[in-house]
Amino acid sequence: MCWKILLLFALVTLRCEGRSSGQLCFPKDFTWGVATASYQIEGAWNTSGKGESIWDRYTHSHPEQVFDHSSGDVADDSYHQFRADISMLRELGVLFYRFSISWPRILPEGFSNDVNEDGLRYYSELINELHANSIQPLVTMYHWDLPQTLQDLGGWTNPIVADYFVDYARVLFTNFGPKVKAWITFNEPLSFCRSGYGGNDAPGGHSSGLEAYMCAHNVLRAHGMTYRMFEAEFKNKTGGNVGITLDMAWLEPATTSEDDQKSAEVARQFMFGWYAHPIYSKTGDYPPIMRRRIDEISRRQHFPRSRLPTFTEEEVKMIRGSSDFLGLNHYTTYLVAKGKGKVAVQPSFDNDMGVIISQKPEWPKSNSTWLRVVPWGFRKILNWVKKTYDNPLVVITENGISSEPGLQDSKRVNYIDAYLRSLHAAVTQDGCNIIGYTHWSLMDNFEWMRGYSERFGLYEVDYTSPQRTRTPRVSAAYYAKIVKTGCIPSQKYSLVFKY
Ligand code: PNW
Q1: Which of 31, 315, 416, 439 is packed most tightly, with the most Cβ within 10 A?
Q2: Is 188 marked active-site?
């Protein structure tokens, strides 16, 4: 039975060979893919008519903010090397490829009055090549590279940017709609609103208590408007599905105390509910606990109104139910304890949330400070989503780990093994409605503020070679085996790579 896949991608061929008893196998219609994102791999930052993005501006004007002072100017040069990427996808045998489209490559000034033909040509060729190899495109419309021109107008804090996003989306649906059956509007608004407007990511805003909420508000509006526009103008003509991708670490209470349990749920509502509640809950709108806390703290800080904006009734209706599937990115788990309860003078998201977040030092490390290996957290977040939002249709759109340098990436092999066991339990024992898994990432790439110092690739990229030569790691063969069989290789196989 493959109606679920049919739902997402229309027609696919199922490849499930070599199943043997005793192995953990996923349902036959479960689909496998890998992911990348435009700024992290494409390079060609100012050629062929591409406009400047906020990440171009930020890395050029603040190289000191990036760990190794690098940028995505060349990155993996996928703008020129995408055929090599497709060979790798073929080697892996994946059924779909999740990549993102660079808004300023399509619309150099951000606006739809000036469309860059070379940008359209690039993505058309990529999509055509994917189809020629029976690989379905899963396209992210926004993976953080906003046109700088729109940032100059305030970026996501300006409500008009939602309208410009809809214009951009219309250009994409018009040009690629017939060949793309699954769209993701936004990748991880929690990350780019919180870290872009209240942290260290581009564009470098430091106002998590105000601008991050405005960003989220306009992103949710843009998402809802795009979904409704797709329904009205394209769905009948081209078919296809539109979803959103949210990043959801698991948030575990630090202790069994009632305070910590409550705080963990508050944190889940602040971090996931912020975006998921307006789209997936029956009531729509922001989670009531966010509304209560931010309204109250704003009042105590003598703001004339809440720093959390308010949707109109029409907006609530527009946004509620505006997703055909939920893309879920999951990497790690955090512990949550009750905060001190003090109202800060300087408004901030963290103070509004009012919890203390940590990780257990004994949890195995990756090569990134924030990412520890906690496979059971994966099953927990999936069950929380099932329970909280009435078991929505989920695609895992990212999961992966930064590994030690070199090709013998036992950390990655073990991570995949452990996290897939957890996912398998969620799918086969808990009845979570999950139809696919996407590994982050196909290959090493520009890891934002960490530059090229953290490697998430199944394929290693040699940044000293002009072609950015790609070489498979051990994990690439391991993942290919999983994709081919639909099963997690037996323990014996993975023991070779234990920590
Ligand atoms: C994702 N966390 O970001 C992004 O979508 C990718 O572009 C990125 O390369 C990848 O993860 C690896 O970092 C995340 O703190 C950043 O839980 C941080 C978290 C999760 C996802």
Answers
A1: 439
A2: yes
